[in-house]
Design goal:
Strand content: 15-25%
Bound molecules: adenosine-5'-triphosphate, magnesium ion
Strand order of the largest sheet: 1-3-2-6-5-4
Number of helices: 18
């Protein structure tokens, strides 16, 4: 039971203060304890009553009491003061505490002050156990020096953001000026670094060039006043190996006052390596399907090569005849030889086009002209379409933007759509068998459309069509559209199909000018 010599409040108030897990006490204007709640027993190991009447100096010892004097002066002037300081504890040690002095002003002025002392060490250890027990790596960094540097460049953050967008070296300088203040156990483990070896070093030590773009975007988000930033990127461990991470930063609410930022990092390398493995399997599958398509197209490709070969033979014979004449006709012979050369070039073009499709290449991203890419796909399938009784035409809008993409993969998509259209038209009772491939600019990219005058999709739902192994053909693998969708999505685009009321089938592909991070 706590003791109150100042006729302090009623029983409820007494019980309440006793229940607070903090030191609650009252000191008079001479710094003599007049009230202490029950919590003092567990803190000091002495009953509250035995503390009443003691001078604050006796609680704290000379040194700590002297340090408190400026706060005691302020509270005597009627000011409420809060500060953090160590407070002696019963086990002989000191505990970090949050302390508040609240003055009691009476009619005659300052009468004394209430004190509230919260044990922070417990809070801190709880905080640290959360901080250290989590599966997220945390880095605590200090932005003071970086902010001063950016401030010097320009006081206007949006100007600095514009500079950061154009000068990738700026973020490097920022990272070099951002010391690490602390990191939790998980971050130490993830980056294979001892906390003691990491503290004080610039964060840039763990940011490789391959990951700099994410930090630049992070800096720009910070400068633009956003609340937080999240990105997948790569960081460097202490031993130089790389780790794929999900990076997340919550920026301080009060930009002016706060300079400490906690950066969260989650190790996503196993997910990324699974994704890479999946991409590899998909690439193999796409390659297998391409080779299978080429197999289907082989007869028409052979025919396509055969035509120039036949022309070469005919022209060769003609040239021989012109030269064997009594009076050789050199001009005619030269003309025949010229035709041989151009037919030879045509044949080797066909072979080169086909070879490209058969090669298993790494996925590439290069600027490509859509119309040209479509023309090539049309060339490869032209004969197959006509042998199935169809026609194939193209229509290109002017001003088609270039896009970043994988030429062979996108051709594979188109070839599959064209062959599908030709097969569908051949299998159905239709009046016309026309395929039209069109390309036009779309917002942020291009729209490619493949339409046919075939029997349409019937009742097949849009999604089902793109599922692997869905096929209505006796010899179909049902992989064509599934692979097409994978390829288009990898380019950041979309693919959809519909059967318009007037008949036929209409495929639409959109492709953005640039594709997302691979
Ligand atoms: N233009 C079209 N008109 C009508 N049906 C179509 C058209 N394109 C595709 N389909 C339907 O979608 C199915 C799936 O096409 P997909 O290209 O994925 O496989 P497939 O052509 O059957 O086999 P493959 O793996 O050899 O390409 C086809 O079997 C067909 O039923
Ligand atoms: Mg197909």
């Amino acid at each position: 039971m706590a003791c109150d010599t100042l006729h302090w409040g009623d029983e409820i108030r007494q019980a309440t203060t006793d229940a607070i897990p903090a030191l609650v006490s009252f000191f008079d204007a001479d710094h003599i304890c007049r009230y202490a709640n029950d919590h003092h027993l567990s803190w000091y190991g002495r009953p509250a009553e035995s503390l009443v009447g003691l001078h604050m100096r006796e609680f704290l010892g000379d040194a700590a009491y002297t340090e408190r004097l400026p706060f005691l002066d302020r509270v005597a002037r009627g000011e409420q003061v809060s500060f953090q300081a160590p407070v002696p504890h019963r086990f002989g040690g000191w505990r970090e505490a949050a302390i508040r002095y609240v003055p009691r002003m009476g009619p005659g002025g300052f009468e004394g002050f209430h004190t509230l002392v919260f044990d922070l060490s417990r809070e801190q250890s709880r905080f640290h156990s959360v901080f250290d027990g989590t599966a997220v790596g945390f880095w605590e960094i200090d932005l003071t020096a970086m902010r001063a540097m950016l401030e010097q460049i320009s006081p206007d953050p949006s100007q600095v953001a514009a500079l950061a967008a154009s000068d990738p070296m700026l973020v490097r300088r920022c990272l070099a000026l951002t010391p690490v203040l602390g990191l939790n156990a998980k971050a130490g483990q993830m980056f294979r670094v001892d906390r003691s070896a990491a503290v004080g070093r610039p964060l840039g030590d763990w940011v490789p060039d391959a990951g700099i773009a994410a930090w630049n975007a992070n800096l720009i988000a910070y400068l633009n006043g956003e609340d937080s930033y999240e990105a997948e990127t790569v960081m460097r461990r202490e031993d130089g190996t790389m780790v794929d991470v999900l990076l997340s930063c919550a920026f301080p609410k009060q930009r002016e006052a706060e300079v400490l930022v906690t950066v969260g990092v989650v190790d996503i390398s196993s997910r990324v390596s699974k994704e890479q493995e999946l991409a590899r399997v998909q690439a193999h599958l796409a390659h297998a399907a391409r080779v299978a398509t080429l197999g289907e197209l082989m007869a028409s490709i052979a025919h396509e090569v055969n035509q120039p070969l036949a022309a070469i033979l005919a022209n060769g014979n003609a040239a021989v005849r012109w030269l064997r004449r009594d009076e050789p006709d050199i001009d005619e012979a030269l003309a025949a030889l010229g035709r041989m050369i151009s037919e030879g070039a045509r044949a080797s073009e066909v072979i080169a086009r086909t070879r490209k499709m058969a090669i298993r290449g790494e996925q590439t991203r290069a600027p490509l002209a859509i119309a040209e890419m479509i023309e090539d796909a049309v060339q490869i399938t032209q004969r197959q379409v006509s042998s199935l009784g169809g026609t194939l035409a193209t229509r290109f809008a002017p001003d088609l933007p270039e896009i970043l993409g994988d030429r062979v993969q996108l051709q594979q998509v188109l070839i599959n759509l064209i062959v599908n259209a030709a097969q569908a038209m051949a299998s159905g009772e239709v009046d016309r068998r026309d395929i039209l491939v069109q390309a036009s600019p779309a917002p942020h990219g291009v729209l490619i459309e493949v339409s046919d005058t075939g029997p349409g999709l019937g009742t097949v739902g849009g999604e089902q069509l793109f599922e692997a192994f869905y096929s209505t053909k006796s010899d179909g693998m049902g992989m064509g559209l599934s692979i097409a969708r994978t390829i288009v999505r990898a380019h950041g685009g979309t693919i959809a199909a519909e059967s318009p009321a007037e008949g036929g089938t209409h495929f639409q592909i959109t492709l953005p000018v640039t594709c997302p991070r691979e």
